[in-house]
Amino acid sequence: MIATLIMLPTTLRANESRSETEVYDVVIYGGTAAGIVAAVQVEWLGGSAIVIEPGSRIGGLTTGGLGQTDIGNKAAIGGIAREFYQRISKYYQDPENWKWQTSEQYKSGGQSRTAEGESTMWTFEPSAALEVLQGFVDEHNVKVVYDERLDRTGSRRSGQVGAGVQIVDGKIHSIRTVKGNVYRGRMFIDATYEGDLFATAGISYTVGREANATYNETLSGVQTANARHHQLMPGVDPYVRKGDPDSGLLPGIDPTGPGEEGSADHRVQAYCFRVCLTDHPENRIPFFKPENYDPNLYELMLRNFEAGQSGFPVINSGMPNRKTDTNNRTGFSTDFIGQNYDYPEATDEERQQIIERHRTYQQGLFWTMANHPRVPENTRKIVSRWGTCKDEFEREDGWQQQLYIREARRLVGDEVMTQHHCQGRKVAEDPVGMAAYTMDSHNVQRYVDANGHARNEGDVQVGGFPPYPISYRSLLPKPNECTNLIVPVSLSASHMAFGSIRMEPVFMVLGQSSATAAIQAIRDKQPLHEIDYEKLREQLISDKQVLDWIPTLRPGFSIDPKKLSGVVLDDVGAERTGFNGAGYTVPKFVGHNYRHDGNVDKGKQHATYTLSAPKPGRYAVRLSYTANPNRASNVPVTIVRNNQPQTMAVNQRKKPGEDGFVTLVEDNFESGEITVTVSNEGTNGYVIIDAVHLKPIK
Q1: What is the pLDDT of residue 228?
Q2: What are φ and ψ of residue 326, in 5° steps?
Q3: What 3-state class would DSSP assign to 3?
Q4: What's the pLDDT band for 12 if we cut at 50, 70, 90?
Q5: What is the pLDDT, as a whole number, of residue 2?
Q6: How far is residue 378's CA from residue 375's CA, in Å, rounded to a whole number?
Q7: In this predicted model, what pLDDT tens digit does every residue of 163-182 receive, in sequence order?
Q8: 525 Cβ partners below 8 Å, 6+ apart?
């Protein structure tokens, strides 16, 4: 084992065999990367584990094409997850693993590129990930059974316990598969993307998008205003015969959409395959026209090209050996929008049909982009160079089995991770890992707008926040529903918070933490809900998990709020509607970044800061912003104290003081609440929000 991060207990060595037992300490349903890491942790801690994998390949998306690791800030990943990426690096240090190019010829890009001297590597082929995970399994004698699907009969959204789960005294006693095999355990882990185990156990969960009002969020529910990325070109006709509503809508356009802004719905963000492509002639399988090719599926794409769509229509992230991780990019791409709503609750047979439809759609998509005369010639030439790989997956056509299940069921426990956790307004007090990615939802539906044009809805990408802790309680069902089940993947989170958490490295981290909690509960003879968190935290830190984030300010750019006298409230603490853009390239700003309105949705974005003077006296109310010629010169700012509003305009093109602040008002203040509201109503450029400072004046 390289760079071992967890010391093996003396009671169990990595190469020690274990006799079969009737009852396992931990039964793990789902051989995703999270499930495998959980099993490894159980074995390292001296317990017994078994992984029940519904398919024929471990690793889920990590071995199923997602080689361009999505994480945001890699420093938030520790424990076994980090060792996985260290082993990926070691794998590619072996010249024998470079068949189609040399290591010198490969240069990773994007968010996953590895810094010089770093011991990890974050881009990889599916086969490399499979070899590394299989190495973990072999070294620690992890028992994996393949092609064993849970018997989910009788559990489809009914709240009733399904046939495949036996509950005794509020605990799962055993699970039964479709083949009739029964697995008993003291603790159970649901490591599936679909949440099949907790759903079959009759535990509370949700599917789709909750309304903003449910958790007082701004980004969940229907989001037409935020759907600016991955959007169709303006003016694309949605009808089978252009301009004729009587001819019907093109496939994939929802006639009932979009719904009321911010409202809940049943819709699920789009799925796709993260396709592994190559341009090496000896390893390439050319794109082909599938047997069930439907040209109507791609008419909207052709019209989108004709409306002015330019550029390569997919993200082709380079992987080693002249391969790619290919993902959705433009308004019409690999995401099969609107075709997965039934998947979370579907039977195994129905899910397989949905998977096959997605595969056929993407096969037809690539063939169309490579061959159709209405596709721009340059795009056809580029796409035609590529094809699936002969040496990656079991299927002869080079396609994988694992569909990218971005979101399915989500547990509903006593603690729900929300947008407020992501943006720092609420902080988990019992962290078991860190999330570090932008709140990211792919498009959810296509609809016809008021102008009679086709539009996408649901794509929301909001970041600008540092890594944040994930609550242990968000991995647990409600205690009155089950006390020996833990869920590291389909955890308790709102639609938008899950969009930030749902990254493979984070799932691995949570898989390890889940296993640690399970073993602690067994040894201390306690339900999962009642274990000593401080003891769990101590073990996780010992195992090199990252539980806290102490970011470093940027010298010359950042202002440390702790060094300012009086009261300082940064944008993280403001009540915001909008201002979702974030930046850190223009000095000077307070903390780690500033926010902006994107120069859109004028009159719909505002931020309110609420501060209190600690005692009566004279104070200056100051506002920080970063100046630039593209800023608004007429930003409305309203100060309210003693119920008396005072409004003024701030010119953000003008550089503030040397310390990054401009004084709005200076006066004698009684102790009590003061609010400062920044709006983008009627503004003529980008509006910046950062911090408000209540500075005492001698």
Answers
A1: 81
A2: -105, 130
A3: coil
A4: very low
A5: 37
A6: 8
A7: 999 999 999 999 999 999 99
A8: none
Give the angle 425-431-433 at the CA atoms, nearest 5°. 105
Among 328, 347, 445, smallest CA distance to 65 is for 328
Gap between the Cα atoms of 86 and 531, Å rounded: 32
Q: What is the helix, strand, coil percentage profile of the chain, to 5?
A: 25, 25, 50
Count CB atoms within 10 A of the CB of residue 142. Answer: 24
65: left (phi over 0), alpha (psi -120 to 50) or beta: left
- For the purposes of burial, counting CB atoms within 10 Å of the CB of 46, is it exposed (0-12), middle (13-18) or buried (19 or more)? middle
What angle in degrees, to the nearest 10, is found between the helix axes of 348-371 and 299-306?
40
H-state helical runs in 246-334: 299-306
Query: In the 3-class helix/strand/coil scheme, how is 25-47 assigned residue by residue?
Result: EEEEECCEHHHHHHHHHHHHCCC
Dist CA 535 CA 72 (whole Å): 29
What span, in angstroms and rounded, lies between the C-alpha atoms of 322 and 319?
6
Buried b (16+ CB within 10 A) or exposed e, 391-405: bbbeeeebbbebbbb
pLDDT tens-digit profile of 234-289? 999 999 999 999 999 999 999 998 999 999 999 999 999 999 999 999 999 999 99
Selection from 392, 363, 381, 397 nearest residue 285 by Cα: 397
Listed residue (227, 209, 206) closest to 446, CA to CA: 227
Distance from chain centroid for Cα 469: 14
Task: Extract the tokens encoding 416.
Answer: 């729900």
Q: Tokens for 595, please give them.
A: 């926010």
The span from the CA of 448 to the CA of 459, in Å, is 16
Taken in order 116, 121, 125, 131, the sign of the CA dihedral is positive
User: Does pLDDT of 356 surpass 50?
Assistant: yes
Check residue 345 and report its DSSP letter: G
Cα-Cα-Cα-Cα torsion 406, 124, 2, 510, nearest 10 degrees, comes to -10
Q: Cβ neighbours of residue 104 under 8 Å, at least 6 residues apart? A: none
Residue type, position 247, single letter:
S
Peptide bond into 238 cis (omega under 30): no
Q: Which of 141, 196, 149, 198 is nearest to 24 (CA)?
A: 141
User: What's the mean pLDDT in 140-147?
Assistant: 97
Beta bridge partners of 486: 189
Least confident of 332-336, 425-429, 532-536, 640-644: 640-644
CA-wise closest residue to 515 among 80, 72, 77: 80
Q: Is the peptide bond before 695 cis (omega within 30 degrees of 0)?
A: no
Task: For residue 258, give the nearest of 407, 446, 443, 442 by alpha carbon.
Answer: 446
β-pairing verdict for 589-590 and 558-559: parallel
Query: What type of residue sits at position 519?
Result: I
Whole-model pTM: value is 0.83
Strand duo 558-559 + 688-689: pairing: unpaired
The number of angstroms, rounded, from the C-alpha of 160 to the middle of its chain's C-alpha atoms is 30
Non-local (6+) Cβ contacts of 408 within 8 A are 193, 194, 195, 207, 268, 343, 344, 490
What are the structure tokens assigned to 129, written together?
């990930």
